[in-house]
Amino acid sequence: MCGIVGAIGERNVADVLIEGLRRLEYRGYDSAGLAVVHEGDILRERESGKVQALADASQHVHGHTGIAHTRWATHGAPTQDNAHPHRSGDIAVVHNGIIENYESLRERLQAEGFVFSSQTDTEVVPHLIQSELRKNPDFMAAVKAAVAQLHGAFALGIIRANEPDRLLAVRQGSPLVVGIGIGENFISSDQLALLPVTNRFIYLEEGDFIEVAAKQITIWDGQGVVTQRPVVELDATLHASSKAGYKHYMLKEIYEQPQAIVRTLAGRVSHGRVAVDAFGPQAAELLKKAKHIQILACGTSYHAGFVAKYWFEAIAGVSCHVEVASEFRYRTTVLPADTLLVTISQSGETADTLAALREVKSRALGSLCICNVPTSTLVRESDLAFITHAGPEIGVASTKAFTTQLVALMLLVLAAGRQQGTLSAEREQTIVTQLQGIPALVEQVLAMDPAIERIADEFAEKHHTLFLGRGAQYPVAMEGALKLKEISYIHAEAYPAGELKHGPLALVDHDMPVVAVAPKNDLIDKLKSNLQEVRARAGVLYVFADHNADVREEPGIKVFSMPTVADEVAPILYTVPLQLLSYHVAITKGTDVDQPRNLAKSVTVE
Ligand code: G6P
């Protein structure tokens, strides 16, 4: 998704801007650009495609104050003309988010004589600032007057040719941080972009305006009052983001899962019990009072929530609904009394998840988020937060973030069961022990990698794949299908296997591989009957099953022998081979694994 970097200092900032954009590449983008103030003018370069193309085109760009952007097209194709920064006279602007009322503003500004050169919503912003400057020559006053007319969610970075010592920025619904250097300062939509230049950050609040100079930062809050925000110092080693010898971030992140899960559990369990206060000081009380759980999330995080729905009801005896945030936020909802909201997000910046939380928070008993980024907006806006400690996840397709979310959610389910009095201490201890055993079992699954790699070419030529699971393994199948479509561009669908004969069976033939997750559990015999239905229609099956499930390999049925694992925690383990399968199919197809086309890591617009 779009990324912003800005810098002001004594050195030539073009290199900092380009390096910052490179570090944002993982978020997904389709064009990039930068603008710097240079001798009373603005030098601008924009390119569609990769940041490297921009770097090549920007060799001549020098200046002490500048802004840069990676764009993920929403309004207008990913062309050079639509790439940011956008200009109006001596003003240049980069923008994340969406200006909802851009059409009416555009008509008005055209009537004032402004000429537009792009199809973007963003271009109204520099023209509007320019229009305001005609009424009041003060730069910040003009920016504030312009922003007051914008509807939508956005973050902006703004420079002006004849004001080389000021970089202005606004946060209104899209993330923005300030990086504090020595004699130089920075802005970015993502702190990762600035880690080479600083580890000291100010996280702006909604409605903040800032003026950044090389040695000074002034912040106005939403009411226009000059304010101070805390400076947070990050431990840079926690944010190491190299591939560490792996060919792709995604593969590295798949292999990091045992360690990541150890980190999620560390300090959160002791003597076979969950530390309820790991969820925050009021967690014990809220979990006791809660009569219903409403989970809200998007993408992979939604699948984690879907698994947790099975767990909440089966293990803690608490009713639980799960819904994608983009739907929930816009429908009329009835929350049962004493509902605890649980949001799940790797980034903590997903626009729909944040909006759904804001929409419903006042009607709920309380809100708790499961998140990987402690400094994120979601963490700040939730009553309680549980940080997964998965470490930075760079691959767009989420892997370790998902398995650590599952671990966190199981801890929450156990804590809820304890507080509700529905879970015995023995069962809690048993499941805690099972969770502690997961890292070693994941290592065993990772050792299956070469065997999984060998079947990748059997998928690479196919156009469709079906994933089947039952019970809490159904969301695991959904996650497997999502991974495959995200990175290999093969259409993949997941079905709860009991639904096969209500439609999808019509699609099954020798050309549609069917992947099944089949651990030994109460539903295994039913699942095996469903697999026979596939086989009887010449469907080729790839089954991940443990020895006890007793699924026999025969022509048309390839069985991968999984380690034996307790049913409760099996979804965590069965996710891993499906990640490896998608990865190898994508490699065989030659797609861009870490930055799949059209997708973004952090979806900060709706
Ligand atoms: C994007 C990413 C997915 C992610 C989803 C939700 O679509 O590509 O990998 O699952 O956003 O992101 P979140 O940060 O809220 O978990």
From TrEMBL:
<keyword id="KW-0808">Transferase</keyword>
<protein>
    <recommendedName>
        <fullName>Glutamine--fructose-6-phosphate aminotransferase [isomerizing]</fullName>
        <ecNumber>2.6.1.16</ecNumber>
    </recommendedName>
</protein>
<dbReference type="Pfam" id="PF13522">
    <property type="entry name" value="GATase_6"/>
</dbReference>
<dbReference type="InterPro" id="IPR005855">
    <property type="entry name" value="GFAT"/>
</dbReference>
<feature type="active site" description="For Fru-6P isomerization activity">
    <location>
        <position position="601"/>
    </location>
</feature>
<dbReference type="GO" id="GO:0006487">
    <property type="term" value="P:protein N-linked glycosylation"/>
</dbReference>
<keyword id="KW-0963">Cytoplasm</keyword>
<feature type="active site" description="Nucleophile; for GATase activity">
    <location>
        <position position="2"/>
    </location>
</feature>
<dbReference type="GO" id="GO:0004360">
    <property type="term" value="F:glutamine-fructose-6-phosphate transaminase (isomerizing) activity"/>
</dbReference>
<dbReference type="GO" id="GO:0005829">
    <property type="term" value="C:cytosol"/>
</dbReference>
<feature type="domain" description="SIS">
    <location>
        <begin position="455"/>
        <end position="596"/>
    </location>
</feature>
<dbReference type="InterPro" id="IPR017932">
    <property type="entry name" value="GATase_2_dom"/>
</dbReference>
<feature type="domain" description="SIS">
    <location>
        <begin position="283"/>
        <end position="422"/>
    </location>
</feature>
<dbReference type="GO" id="GO:0097367">
    <property type="term" value="F:carbohydrate derivative binding"/>
</dbReference>
<dbReference type="InterPro" id="IPR029055">
    <property type="entry name" value="Ntn_hydrolases_N"/>
</dbReference>
<dbReference type="InterPro" id="IPR046348">
    <property type="entry name" value="SIS_dom_sf"/>
</dbReference>
<dbReference type="InterPro" id="IPR047084">
    <property type="entry name" value="GFAT_N"/>
</dbReference>
<dbReference type="InterPro" id="IPR035490">
    <property type="entry name" value="GlmS/FrlB_SIS"/>
</dbReference>
<dbReference type="GO" id="GO:0006047">
    <property type="term" value="P:UDP-N-acetylglucosamine metabolic process"/>
</dbReference>
<dbReference type="InterPro" id="IPR001347">
    <property type="entry name" value="SIS_dom"/>
</dbReference>
<feature type="domain" description="Glutamine amidotransferase type-2">
    <location>
        <begin position="2"/>
        <end position="215"/>
    </location>
</feature>
<dbReference type="Pfam" id="PF01380">
    <property type="entry name" value="SIS"/>
</dbReference>
<keyword id="KW-0315">Glutamine amidotransferase</keyword>
<keyword id="KW-0677">Repeat</keyword>
<dbReference type="GO" id="GO:0046349">
    <property type="term" value="P:amino sugar biosynthetic process"/>
</dbReference>
<dbReference type="GO" id="GO:0006002">
    <property type="term" value="P:fructose 6-phosphate metabolic process"/>
</dbReference>
<dbReference type="GO" id="GO:0005975">
    <property type="term" value="P:carbohydrate metabolic process"/>
</dbReference>
<comment type="subunit">
    <text>Homodimer.</text>
</comment>
<keyword id="KW-0032">Aminotransferase</keyword>
<dbReference type="InterPro" id="IPR035466">
    <property type="entry name" value="GlmS/AgaS_SIS"/>
</dbReference>
<comment type="function">
    <text>Catalyzes the first step in hexosamine metabolism, converting fructose-6P into glucosamine-6P using glutamine as a nitrogen source.</text>
</comment>
